[in-house]
Amino acid sequence: MSMKRIILEMGFGTNLHGMDYTKAARRAVQDALHHSSITVMSSLGMDHKEMQVKVTIGVQQPDLVDCDLVAADLPRGKALSVRAVKGGLDVDDLPTGDRHIMATAAIEAFLPDQQGAYKLTS
Fold first, then answer.
1. Domain ranges of the chain
2. For the domain 3-112, what is the CATH superfamily, name and number?
3. pTM of the shown model
4. Which member of 3, 40, 56, 75 has the lowest number of beta carbons within 10 Å of its beta carbon?
């Protein structure tokens, strides 16, 4: 069955003192999730389990993100993929030796194509 993207949400997360890329990534995903309410599912009588989700995380050191842990934070749907790519921003605090981590997240939600399943009436 063909899937159509119905939602694209973006978020931003940080870890200011722990230098933890996964924590910043999880916060970015939570930020994106808090921007949306997926009412279309119940409106169409669909189960949230039918939704497929793709997550892309942007950080300066993608290999340091635990993508399985990020996927576990998704409250609805089936995670098709969670991947970390080069992006985000690191800011070094030279006097303290800290590195402030900034992550961005894009969450895409897909539903089965409903073309022809509904008819508008007046």
1. 3-112
2. Tubulin/FtsZ, C-terminal domain (3.30.1330.20)
3. 0.85
4. 75
